[in-house]
Specification:
The chain is mainly alpha-helical. It has a domain of about 30 residues. Helix content is about 40%, strand content about 5%. The chain has five helices and four strands, in the order ββαααββαα. The chain has a two-stranded antiparallel sheet with strand order 1-2. The protein has a two-stranded antiparallel ribbon with strand order 3-4. α1 crosses α2. The relative contact order is 0.07.
Length: about 130
Amino acid sequence: MGLANCKECGKLFMQNPSGMCQDCYRAEEENEEKVARYLRDHRRASITEVHEATGVEEKTILKMIKKGRITGDIQVEYPCETCGKPITEGRVCGECGRRVLEQLKADPRAAQKPAEPVSAKRPGEGIHTRFNRQ
């Protein structure tokens, strides 16, 4: 393992799977514990309510939801990534999901377009080396 900069504070630390220094990791764990304690008693709270009650940043609470750190019989409301409407699961609300599906159905070429192979290189891409043999 090498050295890296913490993705939260920028401090230099020994690389680890979390990508954070020990101080930031410890703070994140404490924040998760605060949120979990609050949600045990308030199972249908919004992110704003959790933030106001615990002092944990809303972006941190959203990150916890996306990582799957908030599980069980708890329904936290957070905004749809497309329209901002409050949802309790997934990344987009049902209406936005239907809209995307309708757009795909309306343009059959989009669904039939073959995916470009990952290994396909365009001109100017890739690694260019030059070996001089003597």
